[in-house]
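Narrative of activities, Objective 1.

The group set out to show that a structural description can be obtained from nothing but a protein's sequence at a throughput compatible with the screening campaign. Below is one input-output pair from the validation batch, recorded exactly as produced.
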Amino acid sequence: MDVETRTQLKETVRRFVRERLVPLESQVEETDEVPAEIRREMADLGLFGLSIPVEYGGIGVDMSTEVEIAFELGWTAPAFRSVVGTNVGIGSQGIVIDGTEEQKQSYLPRLATGEIVGSFALTEPDIGSDAAHVKTRAERDGDVYRITGTKRFITNAAYADIFTLMARSEPDEAGAHGVSAFIVPADSPGITLGQPDKKMGQRGTKTSDVVLDAVEVPAANIIGGKPGQGFKTAMKVLDRGRLHISAIAIGAAERLIHEALSYATAREQFGKPIADFQLIQAMLADSRTEAYAARSMVLDAAARFDRGERLTMEAACCKYFSTEMVGRVADRAVQIHGGAGYMAEYAVERFYRDVRLFRIYEGTSQIQQLVIAREMRRAHES
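Output recorded for this entry:
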């Protein structure tokens, strides 16, 4: 993608977010639904195929462009990004990275247009951070596997047409080596969905349990055709996904800074705008500094990703710093608003709740710390 096209794409997404999506934030908060016409408009813009290669019908942006688009999407309620998020990231990238050519031809063009929605099913009731020890079983019977288990907190489960699903297919292999990644059609007999989760924030983003009872899946639906490679596929997907989520967090931080600065400039106390007071200025300055640092980290990591460098530690650094940063920015934004910041009519109240999840999904902050330290030791010992 040339510079001009990249700039046009970014500007188109920016206008769409600020002119079309931001005015709908309160409606989504009240109804817990993203309007159907927004899904269609996102498909028309090509956002479902943002990261899917051009040869399979997508836009095929590089990581540097993807994070710049994510900065823009982060400016609004996370529910809107979630509409396309699984197709752009965890719902498609397993197939993009490790899928067979037949799997790519079968699924990627439809994921790119939004004709089908992909979802990623890894987390279980007792398995979150310890993802190498999934309990969902895939028992082979000739040319099919029968999959039984429960997946939890699955984003877009209600809309999904296919799940990239991790299950233990190799009973003789302990830990990560026994896990395979399957492409599971959502309409397969034996799949039921739990009730939509009631969450602290991110209303309009749908998550629920996915329950599988002896669901038959062809052996040909193992991603890459190789049993026991599922955990490796999942980790590759998460490395890229962590950069994307970092960029979304930065976009949210910049929206919060905008809201806080606008309020501080307009709100008067003691006969002058509160933005004139040094303690308010300090909170604004701290927020801008941290957001700038996070943006610089993510742009650097994305450029290195595009050069083909191994980015496990850097992706974890970005995810850890950016998501913790936006939590601090949200707290300051509420504080600057004072009592108004605790009222639902102000965007900062909603964002305060929404951004809390960024520090948990796709690897908690504590898991990022462990990944960073592990990679540091590995580099030092080598």
